[in-house]
Amino acid sequence: MAPLRTFSPLVLASFAAARQCSQFQVPVDISSRQGKFSEIPIETNLDVGAFATRFSEFQGNYSDALFTDFQTLKGSYEISAQYCRPDSGSSGTIQVLTHGIGFDKTYWDLSYQNYNYSYVNTALAAGYSTLAIDRFGIGNSTHGDPINEIQAQAEVEALNAVTTKLRNGGIPQVGTAYDTVIHVGHSFGSVQSSWLSALYPNNTDGIVLTGYSGAGQFLPYIIAGWNLHSARLNQPLRFGNASNAGLLKLAKQYGMNIDLVSGLQKVLGAAGVDLTTQEIGDIVSSTEILDLITGYNETVFQYNYPSGYLASSDLTALQYAFLYPDNYDLALAIMGEQTKQPVTVGEILTIGNAPMMSTFTGPVFVITGEHDIPFCGGNCYGQVPNSTAANIPAGVEMAFPSASTFDAYIQPGTGHGLNFQYNATAGYQVIQDWLASNGLGA
Ligand SMILES: *[C@@H]1O[C@H](CO)[C@@H](O)[C@H](O)[C@H]1NC(C)=O
Ligand SMILES: *[C@@H]1O[C@H](CO)[C@@H](O)[C@H](O)[C@H]1NC(C)=O
Ligand SMILES: *[C@@H]1O[C@H](CO)[C@@H](O)[C@H](O)[C@H]1NC(C)=O
Ligand SMILES: *[C@@H]1O[C@H](CO)[C@@H](O)[C@H](O)[C@H]1NC(C)=O
Ligand SMILES: *[C@@H]1O[C@H](CO)[C@@H](O)[C@H](O)[C@H]1NC(C)=O
Ligand SMILES: *[C@@H]1O[C@H](CO)[C@@H](O)[C@H](O)[C@H]1NC(C)=O
Ligand SMILES: *[C@@H]1O[C@H](CO)[C@@H](O)[C@H](O)[C@H]1NC(C)=O
Ligand SMILES: *[C@@H]1O[C@H](CO)[C@@H](O)[C@H](O)[C@H]1NC(C)=O
């Protein structure tokens, strides 16, 4: 499977098409009425596995079982953002991009192959500005208690606060006020964009939900399929704060050098295990070894997430959750694995709390990969009980009874992680064209 070349460090290409982008922190004050849950063991990988087991139980409701009371989370936090505008200047219309679980704001602007997979570049080319955020709790946004602080509702409040600042011209680094704000989400980011439209219908002008449907019954597929581990233990050098010196010492002890593949081959060879270079390469890239050594012999930014931040285990789990097999570039998937982000226990416990209905009166678009696992069970053309909709994503229309326009689109040959499949940019264009033909052109 993995050609060894794909394992070498990414050679970051020269820069992409001219554009004006900057990164900064946006301070927000939020107040969120949300759940208070019983503390559960979350230190070890087996603790985390037990959580996933209980959460995925047929006809169970683990959120309900752990719920003790409501509480109000109130505080000042920082949201990390990337702002981009076209070279020609801003048109007054901006897309606010909210990533899903397993990613951060770079999901929208993948640097791979000179930004060939960049959603941001497609939106800029269509004349939009973009603001991609790291969701509250994730990436370079403020982290917090993974059970009782970092929950869905708090993240929606943070997204809304950022939106209000964009409208008021309240972000100095943006330097202008946007009167038209389109919320574009992926997966959990779509849940939150839709949720925002239900709570604050006047604060959005258009909703684009990618990797989304209203069907909740497939959530256990992905919770189980991720094979969740403690993030700190999964990528100790990047998610935790483990020292590289320790890994290097271990490698030395086993007679390895930085060339891990030939090192492993030597060690296994000495033990009488005869594997080809290709086979070793496959093992390194498709198992947790890849995660254990991410950051090996280089300086990686250490997120130092506390226990209770969980990560999908390895590339196999990433493929199950996000990628339709045989229709993606393996080297890009490996990059996705090495730059993945965690999910908190509190997020999983509250992901199902979104309001059932939104009174939003503007245009709503849903675009989901044909083989999406968490929102379609792998087949978006399937029929869910009691739905008369043409397909699963089309069923979202029920939740937006006042929308001025509603359309659903199925992106062919694609899994949940739309931005990582071949043909991703054609899907991006479908979105820009739909916006333009529904009164939201740049
Ligand atoms: C679980 O219970 C909570 C109430 O505590 C409820 O809001 C939620 O809808 C339930 N989830 C499911 C999937 O039934
Ligand atoms: C977070 O900040 C660090 C240090 O500046 C940087 O290396 C990393 O790429 C950033 N991550 C995101 C998701 O912005
Ligand atoms: C949205 O705006 C309308 C018209 O100005 C107003 O009647 C309504 O109360 C507002 N809704 C919210 C949730 O602020
Ligand atoms: C780390 O890698 C560099 C080359 O990328 C190599 O020169 C150096 O010796 C390595 N350090 C260790 C301790 O293996
Ligand atoms: C590493 O992270 C743990 C957990 O957040 C923390 O308790 C510990 O102090 C950190 N160690 C260093 C050296 O930062
Ligand atoms: C389908 O509708 C029937 C009749 O309204 C109801 O009894 C049943 O619970 C519904 N099933 C699901 C899965 O919603
Ligand atoms: C970008 O992707 C398209 C297909 O989506 C492909 O035809 C093209 O060669 C790619 N360009 C680069 C620079 O990889
Ligand atoms: C690529 O995506 C576009 C837009 O959804 C679609 O029309 C086209 O059929 C797709 N191509 C393939 C080969 O799936």
TrEMBL record:
UniProt organism field: Ophiobolus disseminans
Keyword Signal attributed: yes
Keyword terms of this UniProt record: Hydrolase, Signal
InterPro entries per UniProt: AB_hydrolase_1, AB_hydrolase_fold
Signal sequence range: 1-18
GO molecular function, one term: hydrolase activity
Gene3D superfamilies in UniProt: alpha/beta hydrolase
Domain AB hydrolase-1: 96-230
Name this polypeptide is given: Alpha/beta-hydrolase
